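Regression check, S-adenosylmethionine case 373:
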Amino acid sequence: MDDIERTIHDFVADVLLEGEDISFDERTPLLKHRLIDSLNVEELIAFVESEYSITLSDWLHSKWETIESMAGLIRAHSPRSPEAAVSKTDVTPDAIATDYEKSVARYWNEKLNDPINLLLGAEDGLVHHHYGLGEYDPAVLSGSGADREAAIIRELHRLECAQTDVVLDAFGGMEPDGRLLDAGSGRGGGSFSAHRRFGCWVDGITLSQYQVDFATKQAARHGCTDKVAFHLQNMTRTLFPDGHFDRVLTNETTMYVDLAAAFGEFARLLRPGGRYVCVTYCVNDTIAPTSADCEAVDAHYGTRMHLRSEYLAALSAAGFSPSQVTVLNAQTIPYWELRSHSEHRTGVERAFLDGYRSNVLQYVLIAADRLPS
Ligand SMILES: C[S@@+](CC[C@H](N)C(=O)[O-])C[C@H]1O[C@@H](n2cnc3c(N)ncnc32)[C@H](O)[C@@H]1O
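Current build output:
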């Protein structure tokens, strides 16, 4: 337990249980377990609010059902939490300005107990928030119970790592002294993979302080804090100087931003000849400008996916010349089929499968080079 978890644990144990002999730890579900019967939730909320100078009123109960998840939210929100202070120095003052940006930041700050992502990265410390590519081994479906689920999880992770490999291949190499921006870095899985592959410097940026803190801890675990760092910054208006990067990556993040603003910023950040690689799901507008499947995916994640045609138009307008455009529907469909078998499926699988199979939704990789200005 860290300091925050210990503080909440002690409060629950000493004050609220009033001597009852109930065994619990930071993962015990406070709101589902019988603890809730004896636990004065109002008192606990008041304690946390005053101890950490935060307001809990707009937080979903489901997000603080355990001591662990409460502690995660506190870390992400509290100005007095030591972890929240890790990257205070390079927070862009207006990184999270619009109502939409606030909703995106809140979504990722509150995504704390997501087994479909955390379990997959538990073994090797590479936690991804993107999907997978390639055929799965059907043998993983032949077992039963916990063994079967563990095999599915391992296989999903293998496919997500294979996706990262395809994305990194599109950079066509990089020098160890090169600099890569991972724009929308999530929990850092892609940043660590890029550093492992190229030995390069990596800056990961995200709108979520929780993710900055999580990935910063993972960097220590991977022993690469000297070259890989995470920051709370907005990819449409970063703090980095002109021409600072040799490569920019967006792996399933551009559905959250205005393309002209993001690509304009990437053109500023990349040295001439530098390469930008983007993977995204998008609307195949040669078939229809939207569809029920695309809308279901957007509704599930709070994204605003763009039309495929908008990508190439916005890249050209920002001074990029595409060198690769690949539609990856066939390669990602097996991942979604396998994920549909997992106990940890989230309900969005059907929309992705139907969308990709009917081609109204496309999973696209684009590599583009920054033209000399
Ligand atoms: C689906 S996750 C992808 C994470 C990561 N690229 C991966 O492959 O695992 C989307 C990420 O984009 C980030 N994001 C969304 N809008 C952003 C913005 N305007 N600036 C920086 N990051 C943003 C979110 O905070 C989140 O980390």
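Comparison notes: Strands lie at 179-183, 201-206, 228-232, 245-251, 270-283, 320-327, 361-370. The chain has a mean pLDDT of 87. No diff flagged against the previous build.
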